[in-house]
Amino acid sequence: QVQLQESGPGLVKPSETLSLTCTVSGYSISSGYYWGWIRQPPGKGLEWIGSIYHSGSTYYNPSLKSRVTISVDTSKNQFSLKLSSVTAADTAVYYCARLLITIFGVVIDYWGQGTLVTVSS
Amino acid sequence: QSVLTQPPSVSAAPGQKVTISCSGSSSNIGNNYVSWYQQLPGTAPKLLIYDNNKRPSGIPDRFSGSKSGTSATLGITGLQTGDEADYYCGTWDSSLSAGGVFGGGTKLTVL
């Protein structure tokens, strides 16, 4: 059974960099699929952040692209998110997920439980 | 402002049927498969429908999906109180800035 678990600070100061890691168990990241991040501000809907393939190929949300870096560490079976210059608007529950991206579209078949990150001084 | 448009809320009585719409454009729904996700209160989203109308293992056939042109629809029959949740449509946007997009979500209330 594929499982994903987010980890990282729950509180980040404005203008600093938010850093989260997702640890995958039950499946090798190197075996395929894209791995990505989705966020959900309190009381609001889902927002795609970006995704990465084990080879390093990435897709980023254009509205966040200048501040986002997603990387993968296949030796640890982990992938990570860095979001720079955060503001209160970046306060959200951050989910990591497994994604199947093909020429036909995208399917998110496994999700982590989510971790709340609050941006506040 | 979400790329895909869903009604904020729908409601129906137990045992009844409800549909949730998702509207997009030719760069997303019009040329890509649609997925639907169910988010029960306080939990992570869960895949409910993929490739417009396919159900993952374990999802009952009370849930169905369809797509026509630039719109998609999620149908739920035999409503149960346990179906109360937020439902999101999602797909790929094939514009110059390719990436995943979601609807704003629809809250289903089972009266």
Give structural notes:
Chain A is mainly β and 121 residues long. Helices cover 0% and strands 55% of the residues of chain A. Chain A has no helices and 11 strands. Chain A is globular. Chain B has 111 residues and is mainly beta. Chain B contains no helices and 9 strands. In chain B, strands 1, 3, 4, 7, 8 and 9 form a 6-stranded mixed β-sheet that branches.
What would the keywords be for this entry?
heterodimer; A: 121 residues; mainly beta; four-stranded antiparallel beta sheet; B: 111 residues; six-stranded mixed beta sheet; three-stranded antiparallel beta sheet
The main pleated sheet of chain A reads as: 7 strands, mixed
Helix/strand/pairing class of chain A, anyone?
mainly beta
Order of helices and strands of chain A: EEEEEEEEEEE
Mean pLDDT of chain A, rounded to whole units?
95
Mean pLDDT of chain B: 95
Outline the secondary-structure elements.
The complex is a heterodimer of chains A (121) and B (111).
Chain A: E1 3-7, E2 11-12, E3 18-25, E4 34-40, E5 47-53, E6 58-60, E7 68-73, E8 78-83, E9 92-102, E10 105-111, E11 115-119
Parallel strand pairs in A: 2-11
Antiparallel strand pairs in A: 1-3, 3-8, 4-5, 4-9, 5-6, 7-8, 9-10, 9-11
Chain B: E1 9-12, E2 18-23, E3 34-39, E4 46-49, E5 63-68, E6 71-76, E7 85-93, E8 99-102, E9 106-110
Parallel strand pairs in B: 1-9
Antiparallel strand pairs in B: 2-6, 3-4, 3-7, 5-6, 7-8, 7-9
Quick description:
The complex is a heterodimer of chains A (121) and B (111). Chain A is mainly β and 121 residues long. Chain A is 0% helix and 55% strand.
